Amino acid sequence: MIENDRLKPDLGVNVALFTLVEAEKLANSIWADSLIRSEKLSGTSDIGTGLYVVTMRDTETDQETRVLPGDFVTGDESLLQAAIRVVREVLGVKTKVKLRQIGIFDKADRNVGHRVISIPYWGAIAFEDLRQFLGGRYEVGLELVTSSEFIEVWERENGGLEEFDGVSRFGYRLTPNQKRGHERRTNLDLGKPAILGHDHDDMVFYAWRKLRHAFTGRLDPFRYLGVLPFGSEFRISDLQDFRDVARGEKSQADQFRRSMLQSDMPLLRQTMKVDNTKRGKPARLYELNMDMSPLDFDQSDD
Fold first, then answer.
1. Residues 224-248 pLDDT 10s
2. Which of 35, 38, 48, 16 is nearest to 120 (CA)?
3. Where is the NrtR DNA-binding winged helix domain (predicted)?
4. Using CA atoms, how far apart are residues 284 and 7, in angstroms rounded to an integer?
5. Region class of 48: left (phi > 0), else alpha (psi between -120 and 50), else beta
6. pTM of the predicted model, to two decimals?
7. 255 lies in which domain range?
8. Closest Cα to residue 134, out of 12, 17, 14, 238?
């Protein structure tokens, strides 16, 4: 091998950890507004149901910059072990999280001062398992990725959603047609100001695109993500909100309901319980039409 006196790059991992929560519940759970960041939407004051990614203060720059949690890989651990350590030790989360790799981020100028190659991972966690770890020494907080209201405003301002295969604050993809293929537009592509520090906007965007696969075809989203975001019993409308927000699009209520209940192997089954905790008329609760057996959360299955 050719000897090279130039400094070798460091190897690091970052984690894009997603959570889903309604605006009202979030407002009642957070003790510092500075921990939550979201774009102000024109004509609305309600975020609705939101998909958020966990962030923290950038300890390498200033307190105003937010980044994804991360750390360097030590000599005696694998990439996945390092990502698990970030979740457990940096964030303090003890709940098992199913982690998957996003890709490789290796641009020479992605860090100021020294070169770092990062292998980011992504996963999902129920808000109830996360909220006690918000704040603290690293000022752990949440950054809005997309929400039901964000999608409504996007639809109104862009004359519909037909041209888009999912929209978010971190970018979108255009629906392929005869004139174009799969075109993705990140904030960097669009020349928009960065939301997070370094190149973490791109990490969130590509992690979100992978998260969308949880709702592809007949795939069980809960087993794919390794999380039950709203408990074992829920309204169908809760699952539809989850699906729409996760994918950054809108679905028809009747069509979604049929896809969940009317098939040879329906994903859901009806319980005898009714939920009257929300505004409007009470709604029947449903559960998965299968056992949520324990998963090997600490292994990547990519």
1. 888 888 878 888 888 899 999 999 9
2. 16
3. 232-288
4. 62
5. left
6. 0.88
7. 220-288
8. 17
Reduced to 3 states (helix: H, G, I; strand: E, B; else coil), residue 273 is strand
- Report residue 38: phi and psi, to 5°: -155, 150
Residues of the chain with pLDDT under 50: 1, 5, 41-45, 294-299, 301-302
Residue 179 lies in a domain: no
Task: Report if residue 32 sits inside a domain.
Answer: no
Tell me how many domains the chain contains.
1
**Secondary structure (DSSP) of 83-97:** HHHIIIIIS---S--
With respect to residue 298, please indicate whether it lies within any of the assigned structural domains. Answer: no
- Tokens at residue 10, please? 């460091």
Write out the two tokens for 154: 């996007």
CB atoms inside a 10 Å sphere around CB 29: 15
Residue 282 domain-assigned?
yes
> In one letter, which amino acid is 253?
A
Residue 35 φ/ψ, nearest 5 degrees = -80, -15
pLDDT in tens, 53-66: 999 988 877 667 89
Q: Residue 213: what are its φ and ψ, rounded to 5°?
A: -65, -20
Instruction: Tell me the residue type at 90.
Output: V
Query: The CATH number of the domain where 259 resides is what?
Result: 1.10.10
